[in-house]
Design goal:
Low-confidence stretches: 186-197
Shape: globular
Order of helices and strands: HEEEEEEEEEEEEEEEHEEEEEEE
CATH architecture of the largest domain: 7 Propeller
Strand order of the largest sheet: 1-2-3-4
Helix content: under 10%
Number of helices: 2
Number of strands: 22
CATH class of the largest domain: Mainly Beta
Oligomer: single chain
Largest sheet: 4 strands, antiparallel
CATH topology of the largest domain: Methylamine Dehydrogenase, Chain H
Strand content: over 45%
Number of domains: 2
Structural class: mainly beta
Mean pLDDT: 85
Distance between the termini: 80 Å
């Protein structure tokens, strides 16, 4: 052991360079400037400026273009949320793939600015940073978008990142901005932390809908449950459930009427699940739904 230590000490004194790891160039993709990467399992996606999205399933040894349905081949952002891959493009908005890039679908409803420079994911929430339009939020995998720019005076957003309970936005010439995630999901007190695989509030279906939609939720143990529907101003529209429920999956239907039996106007609504068990475990989650005409 002493001889080994003495050898490396002598090497250091003599100035002989020690072995170091090196970069190895992969076989492509050569379809333009590579701007962004995203990883989903063993799949590596590369977004390029001019040739769309490329996929490698062998650590970069080979690449395949996966652009069917992509609205623009200038891809400036990529994000992964569960089985969904999202591509933010220049001028084509956001596209979503549910089959590892084999096909893409445009998901721009409510996205009034289609020059998307950044994407960020926080649980079920997807954020898009745009050039000139600020930040947009989708809580339904891109099916609909809502502008969340309160207080943001620089709308040229080039970077987004989630850290803890905040979303950070990097802007052109305006530095970095920060906002609480719960503020943007809804004015209703949203709660972002949860134990995976236990309590869960499902996305309603169908969505958008008219005249009725189904809401599902999971309880790992019996609990007192409240499910409340709010408008975008945080006002209670309808109390869908308030009472005890056993463990398991449950569903209920909202028929589009408020607590007074009046037909609710079309628009965006938020529904909140609150659950509390006998041993004091509490859970809250908020999702968004869209009622159409």
């Amino acid at each position: 052991m002493r001889r080994i230590v003495a050898f490396f000490a002598a090497v250091a004194l003599m100035g002989v360079p020690t072995l170091q790891g090196q970069w190895i160039q992969t076989n492509g993709p050569y379809g333009g400037v590579v701007r962004v990467f995203a990883v989903s399992g063993s799949n590596l996606f590369a977004g390029t400026e001019g040739s769309g999205v490329f996929l490698s399933t062998d650590n970069g040894t080979s690449w395949t273009g996966v652009n069917t349905g992509l609205t623009s081949n200038i891809v400036q952002a990529l994000a992964v949320s569960g089985p969904n891959i999202f591509a933010g493009t220049r001028g084509g908005g956001v596209c979503r793939s549910t089959d590892n890039g084999t096909s893409w679908t445009k998901v721009n409803t409510g996205l009034t600015n289609t020059y998307v420079w950044a994407l960020a994911v926080s649980g079920p929430n997807l954020f898009a940073g745009t050039w000139g339009g600020g930040v947009f939020l989708s809580t339904d995998n891109g099916a609909s978008w809502t502008e969340v720019n309160g207080g943001l005076t620089n709308r040229n957003v080039l970077a987004l990142a989630v850290s803890g309970s905040h979303l950070f936005a990097g802007t052109l010439g305006g530095g970095v901005w920060r906002r609480s995630l719960s503020e943007m999901v809804t004015g209703v007190d949203a709660h972002f932390s949860r134990t995976p695989g236990e309590f869960r509030l499902e996305q309603n279906y169908p969505n958008p809908f008219n005249p009725a939609t189904t809401v599902g939720y999971h309880l790992p143990r019996p609990a007192q449950v409240k499910i409340t529907l709010f408008d975008t101003q945080g006002r209670v529209v309808c109390r869908l459930w308030d009472g005890f429920r056993p463990a398991g999956r449950h569903t209920l239907v909202w028929n589009g009427l408020d607590d007074g039996g009046r037909k609710a106007p079309s628009g965006v609504y938020f529904y909140r699940l609150e659950a509390k068990t006998e041993d004091g475990i509490s859970f809250r989650e908020v999702n968004k739904m869209v009622l159409t005409k």
